Amino acid sequence: MKKQLGLYIVILVFIPLLLSAYTGEIVKSFNTPAFHATGITFDGMHIWVADRKTDLIYCVDTATGKTIRSISTPAYWSTGIAWDGEYLWNADVRGGVPMYENFIGKIYKIDSKNGNILKTIQAPSNSPIGLAWDGKYLWCADPVSDEIIQFSADDGTTIRTLKSPASDPNGIAFDGIYLWITDRNKNEIYMMDPENGCVIIIAEAPGPYTNSLCYDGKHLWASDYQNDKLYQLKIHDAALYKISNEKKSKVTYTYTINNFGPGNVNSIDVHFAIPANRANQIINGPITYSPNYTDIVTDQWGQKTTRFHFEKMKSGESKEIQMVSNITTYDVRYFIYPNKVGALSTIPDSIKNLFLANNEKYQYDDTIITNALKKAIGTEKNPYWIARNIYNYIHKHMYYEMVGGWNTAPTVLSRGNGSCSEYSFLYISMCRAAGIPARYVGAVVERGEEASMDNVFHRWVEVYLPGYGWIPVDPSGGDKTLPRDQADCFGALSNRFYITTQSGGGSETLGWSYNSYEFWSTDPHTFMVYENFADWEPIK
């Protein structure tokens, strides 16, 4: 006999977020003036579009998309353009030299009234593609060296060099605080901190070959080389996150207990974490259980579990419990602007009291943790950068390896390696020590595109950022080389995850585990084995 647990959490709670404007959403679009647009900029009133085929720079009306006038480009292969408040700057990837082996990047200062060249400097790289002005210096993107370069407009001297977010940077823009960079291979747009090179936001590019960006004071503009379009895009808007890539699945979570004797099991309690609707998942209809659960229990973290109680399991006897869910999962990506994150003092006491507590697993008063925290965050006060700097610190000092056990945070950091759980314990420890509320979530994972089985599972962290709420952070998953891939594990989740557990750790029903846990008493010399796994089936 199966028992159904009604989990009809109102789905409407997610609708306002889905309807809100999100970063990268298209406001409007126009055809480009010609068919080989390679650079755009905004002069305070109009969009200027550089075209490498016609060797012209077009002035375009932002309301209608109509060309007002044009000037000749000095570049042999015109790429990026920028506006410094008075003049245009145009990057030339070939430097006026037609032979590939002689390419030398050039940057031209141009009078927009007549197209006259006012100045020529050597570019800081041979392949300057995008171009942007930050109020003092120029920036260019170089897809050959995979670098983002800030340089002097006086003589081309390099001021700083940042690693490109991904592998093929093209367009670049500056919005007064952050850099925005588009990548051809990923078809994405990245918001990057110009001081440290961290990618903060990942947004979808509007077209298949978005190669240029500029900022008009409120929106981004992008040009696409393949479909010959100019797009106006929303940024700094209301949506906290965006969901995409809907996937419907049937998930069967199975738990087996085997008593190999020779004694008896006097009693056993098995707890299943009850999944709930979240930003990345919707539970369709009731969850079914077989056999009937005994009752529902809520732990100190608010996590509900179904409890299954058994008496007198004899030697050779086994039990099986199943939880079956029909779910819809999504990719979810949060849009976090560090300058809009509130102060630590604004975090509600109810959250602080629960999720800043210390315990035997975190031990955040240990000198190993306190010393590491000083190195990681210094004097930083912004909650986003505190959490992000801790995240970056752990990447530099840890590598992923399952070596057995779920050790304490100081032990894990001293050892320098750990599992996803140990990464999570360490990250929670350091965040809580810094005043950032943190907790972990546990999930089963779809490890294939079609039907699959998971008996490894996964755990990561959620941090509370004032003004944004609980944000997913996977400290082990973000152990990558590219800034884009590192950012993909700070504020984003895949539709492969079915989250079951939300906890601060040390639960009276789940212990330090997740998904499920068991408590038993046995006769002496009784050997018990339990297994748990999840089966995924696609629902077409």
Q: Would you give an account of this structure?
A:
The protein is mainly beta and about 550 residues long. The chain folds into three domains: about 120 residues, Immunoglobulin-like (Sandwich); about 220 residues, Methylamine Dehydrogenase, Chain H; about 150 residues, C8orf32 fold (Roll), CATH 3.10.620. About 10% of the residues lie in helices and about 45% in strands. The chain contains seven helices and 38 strands. The strands form nine sheets. Strands 1, 22, 24, 25, 28, 32, 35 and 38 form an eight-stranded antiparallel β-sheet that branches. A four-stranded antiparallel β-sheet has the order 2-21-20-19, with no helix packed on it. A four-stranded antiparallel β-sheet has the order 3-4-5-6, with no helix packed on it. The chain is elongated, with a radius of gyration of 28 Å. The two termini are about 25 Å apart. The N terminus is likely disordered.
Distance linking N and C termini: 27 Å
In the CATH hierarchy, what is the architecture of the largest domain at level 2? Answer: 7 Propeller
The pLDDT mean sits at 93
Content-based structural category: mainly beta
Write down the Rg: 28 Å
Largest sheet: 8 strands, antiparallel
Roughly what percent helix? 10-25%
CATH superfamily of the largest domain: YVTN repeat-like/Quinoprotein amine dehydrogenase
Helical segment tally?
A: 7
Oligomer: single chain
Estimate what percentage of residues fall within beta strands: 35-45%
**What is the class of the largest domain in the CATH system?**
Mainly Beta
Q: So what's the overall shape?
A: elongated
The CATH topology annotation of the largest domain reads as: Methylamine Dehydrogenase, Chain H
Unreliable segments (pLDDT under 50, ≥5 consecutive)?
1-19
- Count the E strands: 38
